[in-house]
Amino acid sequence: MTGVDITALVPRYFSALTDIPVAVEQPTGLVTDRYARPLHDLRISVTDRCNFRCVYCMPKEVFGKDFAFMDRDELLSFEEITRLARISVAHGVEKIRLTGGEPLLRKGLEELVAMLAALRTPDGREVDIALTTNGSVLALKAQALKDAGLRRVTVSLDSLDDATFKAMNDVKFPVAKVLHGLDVAHSVGLGPIKINMVLKRGQNDQDIVAMARHFKDTPYILRFIEFMDVGSSNGWEMGAVVPSSEVVARINAELPLEEVSPNYSGETSRRWRYRDGGGEIGVISSVTQSFCHSCSRARVSTDGKLFTCLFATEGHDLRALMRGGCTDEQLSTVMAQIWRERTDRYSELRSSQTGGLRASGKKRIEMSYIGG
Ligand code: SAM
Ligand code: SF4
Ligand code: SF4
Fold this sequence. Notes:
Blueprint: H1 6-9, E1 41-45, H2 78-90, E2 95-99, H3 109-117, E3 128-133, H4 138-148, E4 152-156, H5 162-169, H6 175-187, E5 194-199, H7 208-215, E6 221-226, H8 244-254, E7 257-260, E8 270-274, E9 280-284, E10 297-300, E11 305-307, E12 316-317, H9 318-323, H10 328-340, H11 346-352, H12 367-370
Parallel strand pairs: 1-2, 1-10, 2-3, 3-4, 4-5, 5-6, 6-9
Antiparallel strand pairs: 7-8, 8-9, 10-11, 11-12
Helix pairs in contact: 2-3, 2-10, 3-4, 4-6
Bound molecules: S-adenosylmethionine (SAM) and iron/sulfur cluster (2 copies).
């Protein structure tokens, strides 16, 4: 295979260089953007590598053996990540999710979890630390992660059928190993455990009801996610999206459901519970029903760029500031300024002009780099 021009696909080298502010300001525990959305959640990608090649995320044709993943010194160190997290918490972040790539491939991740678990909100509360993983090595790591202070884990699982799952992860990884990881995570007390199933029409939508049935009456909360047009390499098309309304209708026809009110404002998942008391499911309708109006999420890429939207084409290079000797006060001021200027509402705009946004010509950031 010939080398792939990754700069054309993953524009991590083209980022906004932010000036170091001359005047600094103190964090107040609340910073809001141009649409009055507070900064509340932080997702941190700890590696751009993964042992899966999910067709909707890291297709093999792009992320093949010649793909240039980042060198170790390009990655933020645990100290750098914790520094950004601490400043974010001072601005009002209450939830931190570690993601990737596959976060459990980052060596010593439990040390980072312990460092983050020591953070406190301005009024002295613990920060909610969570992790999204493909579950492949969860059985090995669950206890250490729990001991380090991890609270919750979300495990991705796209099918219970081995052939379907292997075709979707594209590395022939078996379902049974992920299910075992789930069991171990549950037994060590990580919870509530959520399961993410990304739906791609014609690939795994035939398994919707089987998945629902399997996880009904268990401690696990299954969530169905619409296939998103994130990145520039997953060949997204609207026809491959299974709308959440269809998911709910298909399950409801066999296992009656009723809608439940959200746990908190800004929750991305809409909740439904089984009428017979068998637990609940969630649907994440990122494509058919945007939730930009309440989006309070910032993302830090593996190499320390701050993105204010999953569909951004440009990040703000916080690593350059940190490695250039920026003080905490300066970094804090930069982060507040970036958030205050935020106007992102990609999904809302997409709903009103599908096609037009993709035609803009700008390369978008890949999910494995920015963290889902
Ligand atoms: N490797 C970990 C995993 O798979 O859970 C964490 C990173 S992955 C990028 C985070 C989440 O994004 C996963 O639940 C994955 O299924 C989801 N995801 C990736 N690409 C997606 C896409 N194009 N549309 C919707 N969800 C996607
Ligand atoms: Fe890897 Fe997660 Fe992307 Fe699948 S969704 S390729 S497991 S990063
Ligand atoms: Fe948030 Fe951007 Fe997604 Fe809208 S499109 S919900 S602003 S990440």
